[in-house]
Design goal:
With 534 residues, the chain is an alpha/beta fold. It contains 16 helices and 21 strands. Helix content is 41%, strand content 20%. Strands 13-14-15-12-11-17-18 form a seven-stranded mixed sheet, sandwiched between helices. 48% of the residues are buried. Bound molecules: nicotinamide-adenine-dinucleotide. The site of nicotinamide-adenine-dinucleotide has 33 residues, from helix 7 and helix 8.
Length: 534
């Protein structure tokens, strides 16, 4: 399993004479080293999980209301410190401050709101009335129990909102959590840990283990009860294989190649603004970003023109500057992926209408927002996740072709349809293979705390957010109590010819067609009560 990255460095601790791996937190806009943090060793990870396991019992024993109160406390703290936290996100992940505020801090505040409002009800036992006649003497309930210790592995692109939404859902349902954040964004994870602790979460109930892929692998191999992974498809595949080998439940939130379909009746001004924002927000490093745009041929030229004009007005720079629209990419490696895909598309005939190159004068990791026209399905840029500020746009001729193009992908995270006719948009949305389809908006589904988030095909397995996100954090136990403890069950031993006849009658009584056959069945079955001696 991969262990090193540009953010991992080894230092010889001379007094101990052992190599201590460190992860470096680097400001992607300037290249400035913010801090180096020691990687948790395999033993550190195992010990964190052991501590979490013993603390979880007590954590679940406290009333769900008490856990909700801790979330409320956390929510107040995060709100009070919103600017400081958003600035730290900008310094460590590069996105403009206002994006950090809206797509990270606000998303987490609202997710906490959702959990505060819904966790009590969610954790209540759910009565399960029985329809089958033979089972009428019983009372059943579905009981939700925490899984125990949840291991979370998270990426760098939404370094607060992704791990925080998952962590809060796990904690409020009574689990302990060990989080291994991305090696690029350890500081924001440590800040999150300190806010949760200040809100009253016991230390062992939520722990951050800093590190790289090797630290993640140690968490995966530790004694956790479920793994929640958000990251790339290749890592996700490796993780799924390791989980399968030990039958460890896993939630996988992986990459996307989200299509945007602009139908012939769409508002070109609105849809082009959406495409530009949807492709370039967070410098295109969003799992839900617009990665492929298909526009009806009748609007194609106008749409391209509008996108180019709007893109040229965007200001690229340091996210701490309030005038910045687009910040840097996270690191050189990601930049190279984007550069290679754009070069390959150009070589195969795509036209670069604007952008298409690095901006070294701004800093180490800047890439100009890029609009590509005349892209074809054979190009990598239309097949593989780009995860950068590129908007490739292709024409289509009719709705059926647009749906085919949208579905022609190994991914299935989200999609959007743009039309003035919502019924038409909804009908097309139902034919698109994706976890989420938005009509007349992009990406904002991530900020709807009630909406399940997740994909199909290579985009993952399972759902985060909302009630389904809480559901991922619990085990279902069916609890059944028979109200006639002194009566033997009809179907126990005592088999024989007459019992068989009675049981045939019992089946007919319930399911035969026609009242007459049912009544006869009822009369035949009555004798079973007499038969039940053993
Ligand atoms: P990544 O797969 O490189 O890493 C994700 C996490 O896994 C990191 O914490 C990393 O240290 C850890 N890791 C890496 N190798 C590991 C291994 N062998 N064993 C255990 N852990 C390991 O992904 P990334 O570059 O950090 O994030 C970008 C990717 O995440 C993109 O593909 C993006 O689409 C995806 N993503 C998906 C969603 C979603 O909700 N579907 C959200 C955000 C990002």
């Amino acid at each position: 399993m991969s262990s090193s990255s540009p953010h991992t460095v080894s230092r010889m601790a001379t007094d101990l004479q052992v190599a201590v791996r460190k992860v470096a937190s680097i400001n992607p806009a300037t290249g400035e080293l913010l801090r180096e943090v020691d990687c948790a060793s395999e033993t550190d990870v195992q010990q964190a999980v052991t501590r979490a396991r013993s603390a979880q019992i007590q954590w679940f024993a406290v009333d769900v209301g008490a856990r909700v109160e801790i979330l409320r406390h956390f929510q107040h703290t995060l709100h009070a410190r919103k600017s400081e936290v958003a600035r730290l996100i900008t310094r460590e992940a590069g996105k403009p401050y206002v994006e950090a505020l809206l797509t990270e801090v606000l998303v987490v505040l609202d997710a906490a709101r959702f959990l505060i409002e819904n966790a009590r009800n969610f954790m209540r036992d759910q009565p399960t009335p029985h329809g089958g006649l033979a089972m009428k003497t019983k009372v059943g309930r579905i009981v939700r129990e925490p899984r125990g210790v949840i291991g979370i592995l998270s990426p760098w692109n939404y370094p607060l909102s992704i791990p925080a939404v998952e962590t809060l859902a796990a904690l409020v349902t009574g689990n302990a959590v060990v989080l291994k954040p991305s090696e690029c964004t350890s500081l924001i994870a440590l800040e999150f840990e300190s806010m949760l602790r200040a809100a009253g979460t016991p230390e062992a109930v939520f722990q951050v283990v800093v590190g790289d892929g090797a630290t993640g692998a140690a968490l995966l191999e530790s004694d956790i009860d479920k793994l929640v992974f958000t990251g790339s498809v290749p890592t996700g595949r490796r993780i799924a294989q390791a989980c399968a080998a030990r039958l460890l439940p896993v939630l996988l939130e992986l990459g996307g190649k989200d299509p945007m379909l602009v139908l012939d009746d769409a508002d070109v001004d609105v849809a082009s603004s959406a495409a530009v924002w949807g492709a370039f927000v967070n410098a295109g490093q969003a799992c839900l970003s617009v990665e492929r745009c298909y526009v009806h041929r009748s609007l194609y030229a106008r749409f391209l023109e509008a996108c180019v004009e709007k893109t040229r007005k965007l200001r690229v720079g340091n996210g701490l500057d309030a005038e910045t629209d687009i910040g840097p990419m996270i690191h050189e490696r990601q930049l190279r992926i984007v550069e290679n895909q754009v070069e390959q598309a150009k070589a195969l005939g795509a036209r670069v209408l604007t952008g298409g190159s690095r901006l070294p004068e701004l800093g180490p990791n800047f890439y100009a927002p890029t609009v590509l026209a005349d892209v074809t399905p054979q190009m990598q840029i239309m097949q593989q996740e780009t995860f950068g500020p590129v908007l490739p746009i292709a024409p289509f001729d009719n709705d059926a072709q647009a749906i085919r193009l949208a579905n022609d992908s190994e991914f299935g995270l989200a999609a959007s349809v743009w039309t003035r006719n919502s019924a038409r948009g909804e009908a097309i949305a139902r034919k698109i293979n994706a976890g989420t389809v938005m009509v007349n908006d992009v990406i904002s589904c991530f900020g709807i705390s009630e909406a399940p988030h997740g994909g199909i095909k290579a985009s993952g397995i399972g759902r985060a957010h909302g009630l389904h996100g809480m559901q991922e954090m619990v085990r279902l136990k069916y609890l059944d109590v028979d109200r006639l403890p002194r009566v033997k069950k009809l179907w126990w031993y005592g088999y024989g010819e007459s019992f068989t006849r009675h049981m045939e009658g019992f089946v007919d009584f319930q399911f035969a067609r026609g009242m007459g056959r049912r009544v006869t069945g009822a009369l035949r079955s009555i004798g079973a009560l007499r038969d039940k001696k053993r």
